[in-house]
Amino acid sequence: MATGLPSELQDDLNLDNTNQSLSQLRLASIDDKSWPADEAPDFPKSEDSKGSPELTTHLQWDDPYYDIARHHIVEVAGSDDKYGRKVILFSACRMPPSHQLDHMKLLGYLKFTLDQYVESDYTLVYLHHGLTSENKPSLSWLRDAYKEFDRKYKKNIKALYIVHPTMFIKTLLILFKPLISFKFGRKIFYVNFLSELEEYVNLEQLGIPRQVLKYDEYLRSLQKPSQVPQKPTTPRPLLPNQQFGVSLQ
């Protein structure tokens, strides 16, 4: 029977259910080391692929978030996407080893950055290449981080692009799938090559780390011509029986 509740109230109720499910999701008993390794091609490292040129930080050295901002893990793109939405870039390759990074402070800085744009539509681009066993946060931290991003952050995000996804990130999304609403799940897109992103964002103004650019070139060199997408296609809405583009069956 229809409840007749306003959509915003219904979203709040759904959020309460999600938080309850998250509190019951026990990740602490799962050994992080037992999680599947990123099944990425063996990317040969070279001197010019270790990172990007030295970047400047817009925060002063005495700012509470300076020690996080100086790594440039979270950046605001130099231009909006093709729909006029602000683009926030998260680069996993710029995360230092876990013992050198305060992940709770990183979460606070991410929220601090998003707070400036969440009142309007925005896009989030996550560059997965560079996430390793050394800098990967714990699964319990990911659970707690998901709880922190309430309706305020999810309402106006129009697309979450996961670039260069691997088995680890796909497994992680499968784990969290029962907790992710169908509405938010439709906003998540896998991007295998940077060329697939060009239809939606200006790559030159995105500020992609050089390491990720080199990795993308390497991936393309491994593909047969027919396997490399020549023209990006617009993501189609998922069918009611799909989640993340995969049949629920």
Task: Throw out a few tags for this protein.
249 residues; Phosphatidylinositol Transfer Protein Sec14p; two-stranded antiparallel sheet; 9 helices; disordered N terminus
Give me a quick take on this structure.
The protein is of the alpha/beta class and 249 residues long.
N-to-C SSE series?
A: HHEEHEHHEHHEHHEE
The percent range for helix content is 25-40%
Q: What portion of the residues fall into strands of 2 or more residues?
A: 5-15%
| Main beta-sheet strand count, sense and barrel state | 5 strands, mixed
Q: What is the straight-line distance between the termini?
A: 26 Å
The SS-based structural class is alpha/beta
Region (Disordered): 29-55, 224-249
Pfam family, one: CRAL_TRIO_2
Transmembrane segments: 159-180
GO biological process, one term: negative regulation of endocytic recycling
General description of the model:
The chain has 249 residues and is an alpha/beta fold. The protein has a domain at 65-222: 3-Layer(aba) Sandwich (Phosphatidylinositol Transfer Protein Sec14p), CATH 3.40.525.10. Helix content is 32%, strand content 12%. The chain contains nine helices and seven strands, in the order H-H-E-E-H-E-H-H-E-H-H-E-H-H-E-E. The strands form two sheets. It has a five-stranded mixed beta sheet with strand order 1-2-3-4-5. A two-stranded antiparallel ribbon has the order 6-7. A hairpin with a 2-residue loop joins strand 6 (242-243) and strand 7 (246-247). The radius of gyration is 19 Å and the shape is globular. Residues 29-55, 224-249 are annotated as: Disordered. Residues 240-249 have a biased composition (Polar residues). InterPro entries: CRAL-TRIO_dom, CRAL-TRIO_dom_sf. It comes from Piaya cayana (Common squirrel cuckoo).
